[in-house]
Amino acid sequence: MSFESTLGAIIAIFMFISAILYVLFGQITVRKLRKNPETKHELGLEFVGGWDILNVAQALSLPKSAIRKIKNSRLSFLEANAEVLYQHTNVFDRCLARVFYWLWTGSTLSAIVYLLLNALGVFE
Hints:
Elements: H1 3-35, H2 51-61, H3 64-71, H4 82-87, H5 91-119
């Protein structure tokens, strides 16, 4: 196998693992938060079905300084309320959120860079 196909396969494996974690995080954590009346409306704006899963994972994964900046911006209504979510999640939920979010973000950005480099002819 060439370097290009090996790199593409590794990125695809990480994307597949992040897809599995997406479903698990949605079923384990976000479902619990949707049923709770205190957190039901704190999950952020849902553009498409399942977007609140990404909102919750982001709120539980980003550093507190980034959360403060988001909270003070004009578009804060789009994002999940991290303070409320921290009160209603346990350590396992937060660890699952962090693993899922950073694996999803890393694999997505890697795939975009891979496709750009391929389009520019770097792998030829």
